[in-house]
Design brief:
globular
Length: about 375
């Protein structure tokens, strides 16, 4: 049995992608490694930049996905001259400064009306420092929404309701998706404007849950799954000693988004579901059909999920501006790291082995491609 067949024997293949701006280049390397191993996702879930990468994957033929992902990241590259003409630290400062002041031509551009006064009445769908019209054009070129809505890859993207503070997952299984849903998932305020869908306003899903793996755990009906959860913010890190370090670590903590808490909760719940299934099997045949018993037994669930957390390592010299580092070298380094880390994880094959039958949720963690003892 080859690797792809072995993985598919564990159920649906699910790829979960965090938000994180330029850090999303790591996800391209992850997908490339899976693609070369013959593993194509049945379901892709994303938030913010993860939603963009996910939509490109789901909205492209398998043989074109790498090329379209590469083209998106080529278009958003910025600061070529700084990479070659200045020392790294100086180049980073000027590149980030020009991004903040001038935007990225194929991603976002300044909204002049927003810089006059923070009290200017711009309207609910225009109240932001930047316009994302360029991103709409870029994504319109690269994503086939007919394929998303009629194809064999399920797409789910997360967004935050502006008025109710509730997380909303838009799912191609349940509704037709279009460009608005992808744009809403990445509408990070106050930089980018809210997006209106069916009368309601939405912001970036990362505000409430930047690690949308909960969509898999709460799916109905649940299925046996191999889940590749890609974490592009550093959930593990040293104690910061300077204000500069604090600014970097604060972002990592904020956007890691309580992933560990979600996973611990789901492991407990799924084990209880397996316990219910085992207890139901011990009942005499006549008792299983007694009034009320089938309803109670329905709380059980025999499915098993292998969750592989791919934790991106910190790159040398990165700081709190890493999520706007769209430099060619930054994008290349992160993509190459994602590819190498995923290849090492696949070679380690952590899903092999004997596991407690009561464990329906089996967690594997890899930091920079090296398997570690799960911390959740």
């Amino acid at each position: 049995m080859n690797l792809a067949s072995e993985l598919k024997a564990h159920g649906q293949q699910v790829l979960v992608l965090q938000g994180g701006g330029a850090l999303g280049a790591y996800q391209v390397g992850v997908y490339q490694a899976l693609h070369e191993a013959g593993v194509e996702p049945d379901w892709v879930i994303g938030t913010s930049i993860g939603a963009i990468n996910a939509a490109i994957i789901a909205g492209s033929p398998a043989e074109e996905r790498i090329d379209r992902l590469t083209e998106f990241w080529r278009r958003v590259e910025h600061g070529h001259g700084f990479d070659h003409a200045l020392p790294a630290a100086v180049a980073s400062f000027f590149r980030n400064w020009t991004t903040i002041v001038g935007g990225l031509p194929t991603f976002f551009t300044p909204n002049p009306s927003a810089f006059g006064s923070v009290h200017a009445a711009l309207g609910a769908e225009e109240a932001a420092y930047y316009s994302v019209d360029p991103l709409r054009e870029t994504l319109s070129d690269l994503i086939d929404f007919d394929r998303i809505n009629d194809g064999d890859v399920r797409l789910t993207v997360g967004a935050s309701s502006v008025t109710t503070s509730e997380m909303r997952y838009f799912d191609s299984r349940d509704m037709p998706l279009d460009l608005r849903h992808i744009m809403a998932s990445g509408a990070l305020p106050p930089a980018f404007p809210a997006v209106r869908i069916d009368g309601d306003l939405y912001w970036d899903g990362g505000i409430l849950s930047n690690t949308p793996v909960e969509a898999v755990f709460d799916d109905n009906p649940r299925r046996d799954s191999m889940v590749y959860a890609v974490h592009i913010w550093n959930s593990h890190g040293p104690e910061p000693e300077t204000i500069w370090d604090v600014m970097n670590r604060q972002k990592d903590v904020q956007y890691s988004s309580r992933a560990g808490t979600h996973i611990r909760r789901q492991r407990q719940l799924h084990k209880l579901r397996h316990v219910i299934t085992e207890l139901t099997a011990l009942l005499p045949d006549g008792c299983r059909t007694a009034p009320g018993v089938p309803e109670l037994a329905a709380y059980g669930c025999p499915t098993r999920m292998h969750v592989i957390r791919l934790l991106a390592p910190a790159l040398a010299g990165e700081d709190h501006s890493k999520d706007i580092d769209f430099s060619p070298s930054g994008i290349r380094q992160r993509r190459e790291a994602g590819y190498a880390d995923t290849m090492h994880t696949l070679e380690a094959a952590p899903w092999r082995g004997e596991f407690d039958p009561l464990e329906g949720f089996i967690l594997h963690e890899a930091i920079g491609g090296h398997m570690v003892e799960p911390t959740c």
